[in-house]
Write a structure and sequence with these properties.
Length: 243
Amino acid sequence: MNGPEIHIEFAPELDLFVPQARRRGPTALVTDGVSSLGHVVESLGVPLTEVGELLVNGHPAARSHVPAAGESVRVRTVTRPQRIEGAPLRFLLDVHLGTLARRLRLLGVDTAYESTDIGDAALAGRSAAERRVMLSRDRGLLRRRELFAGGYVYSDKPDDQLHDVLGRFAPELRPWTRCTACNGELKETPKDDVADLLEHGTQRTYDVFAQCTACGRVYWRGAHHDRLERIVEAAMGCHGDPG
Ligand SMILES: [Zn+2]
């Protein structure tokens, strides 16, 4: 290319995406003179979902800005908590994030999840249609123009994923209000109403019942409860509303 030369510097939080030679300090880059700054950043491997403020010669600039010769560009990461405009905060997770999906639902966060691989186009379409923030570890998916909004999931460990997503988007937490299987809302239910659906032992031993208003699944305090309680307590300790 024979276009204008700029200098570009990325926030260290974006190291994962930035070619090694461009980490730690500004590097020279020859652009084509017509591409927007957003396009330039993305073409270096950084998903725009992870990009916050762009500074050109120290001043905030739009992604549509076309960089000119000699400009000095700084690329910041998203600010936390990140506010999503245009819809109540809700998520869509891809096929690889099933554990994270169940944990978000356990905390009452509206979380759709595709348990089969429906393809990037269909996922992006659903994100747009339902105005859900697409969470994924797939950079290609996060480049889709149709997305309502998106976020890269940095860890492959569910504990870290949950901490990261709660810290980044700060959703309101309402534990034990949502079906972990289907994302439906739970309502408390008298035991008599669900007795037919319960094993005899369960009916005798446990008293607190809730039922999913969407799929009918019955919840009670029993097996696995301690493990789930620990997940809830850890999340509420770090990310719950104070008081
Ligand atoms: Zn359900």
